[in-house]
Here is the input.
Amino acid sequence: MHYAQMRQYDIANGPGIRSTIFVTGCSRHCFNCFNPEYQDPRAGQEWTDKEMEQLLSWLSAPTNSGLTLLGGEPMENTDGLTQIVQNVKQAMPDKSVWVYSGFTYDEIIQDPQKKALLDVCDVLVDGPFVDDLKDPGLYFRGSSNQRVIDLKATRTSGQITLVWPDGR
Here is the structure.
């Protein structure tokens, strides 16, 4: 798996102070993508044990709320990310894991590899960015077609449950 960057402190991609991994590789090519340079799966650096150790160190801080996965497209990097999230959850089960994807929830659960990553995450921000639906007033998403899904509540109820039903 390749990644373009890791951030120790990020307040834009989920609640609280979070650490983030921006993977590379995305076949969605959304118009006006905010990270078009991350679409190339060969871009960035290869993930190693060194990055895993650094990430766990950052997440161990009591002020850190959790991990957010972005890209590129995390659902096109399931081989690496599923193991990373499992390692995080094993070491720090109290830390939340958010994942952003241009794929919708319904698309993700149809693919066993994508669903395996989803199953170890707590929140999914789903759907492609749609420039015509861009709204800077939305919480933690770029366009109004995207949803912030509480995965635990969704798994429990069997119905998609949004973190903020009104989007704000």
Notes: The chain has five helices and seven strands. The longest strand covers residues 2-10. The radius of gyration is 15 Å. The mean pLDDT is 94.
